[in-house]
Structure formats: structure tokens, C-alpha cells
User: What shape does this take?
Amino acid sequence: MDGQGATADPQLQQFIEIESQKQRFQQLVHQMTEVCWEKCMDKPGPKLDSKTEVCFVNCVQRFIDTSQFILNRLEQTQRSRGSFSETMSD
Assistant: This one.
């Protein structure tokens, strides 16, 4: 070995991060599908009626809005912790 671990390879790190993002996205889609299906689908049929379709659209939109809100809040929390720890180290 050359003394550098696999974590030192920036291409590998980028690949791992991209694959992790893909996995998180797939999990989110699966979770959203499951939640909205349970909430909106009374009985499966050959076609969606307009009430069910509207329910799915609203459910997905709320799910996306909620996920975005949580991500934004986590980013704010991380930034405030970062600035707090920088202040404490000064």
C-alpha cells in the first residue's frame, strides 16, 4: 500500500457521496409512496377518480414541503452550532 487510505481518494469520496444521495432519494420516494398510498387509496381500481388524484397530489406536495422544511432547519442548526463552536474557541 502507498500509505493513503481509500478515504483519501477524492473521486471515490465523490462516488460514495453520489451513491448515498441516490439511496436517500430512493428511500424518500419509497416512504412518500407508502404514506400517500395508505392515506389516499381506498380501493384500487382500473382508474383513479379525481378525489383520489387530488389526494395524491396534495399528499406528495405536503411530503416534499415537510422534507424541505426539515432539511432547511437541520442546515440552520448546523450553521448555528458551527458559529457557536467557533465563538467558544476564540
